[in-house]
Amino acid sequence: MSKPTHLDDSGAAHMVDVGAKPATRRRAVAGGRIAMSAAALDAIRTGNAPKGDILSTARIAGIMAAKRTADLIPLCHPLALTSVTVEFAWETGGLSVRAAAETTGPTGVEMEALTAASVALLTLYDMAKALDRAMVLGDIRLLEKSGGRSGDWRAA
């Protein structure tokens, strides 16, 4: 197994120097789910939730979070994101989120996509908790990534 890149020779954490890496097109997609009661799901779908348009607010929260990933996750590089999208899909018993982040640069955008998906789900919970406090967030994971030295990857 190779040595972790975020540790120096003494084992102390540090930010990896990516200055010599070539800038390439990078893209990552992450997803997750929130399970909730049928009543809460119906209120969101019909626009009758007490806090208003929950999906639009959660979408914007996810986009904002992707842009702030370096402030939230230690040792992440601040990136000039060229695109962030957050999409929701209705499922039986809940919603799924799919967040994509893109940049051209020396390091990947996996953490930005994961942060966008996570914060979008947290915002859904926050805005719908008056309808259902037993909601469950889960299955947050990287779905695919492209670009960079390690190439393309897709979850099975």
UniProtKB/TrEMBL annotation:
Catalysed transformations (reactions): (8S)-3',8-cyclo-7,8-dihydroguanosine 5'-triphosphate = cyclic pyranopterin phosphate + diphosphate
SUPFAM superfamilies linked to this entry: Molybdenum cofactor biosynthesis protein C, MoaC
Active-site residue numbers: D126
Signal peptide boundaries: none
EC number: 4.6.1.17
Enzyme class, first EC level, given as a word: lyase
Name of one Pfam family that matches: MoaC
Pathway: Cofactor biosynthesis; molybdopterin biosynthesis
Record domain Molybdopterin cofactor biosynthesis C (MoaC): where: 15-148
GO biological process, one term: Mo-molybdopterin cofactor biosynthetic process
Family membership: Belongs to the MoaC family.
Subunit structure: Homohexamer; trimer of dimers.
Known function: Catalyzes the conversion of (8S)-3',8-cyclo-7,8-dihydroguanosine 5'-triphosphate to cyclic pyranopterin monophosphate (cPMP).
Name assigned to this protein: Cyclic pyranopterin monophosphate synthase
Provenance organism: Sphingopyxis lindanitolerans
Gene: moaC
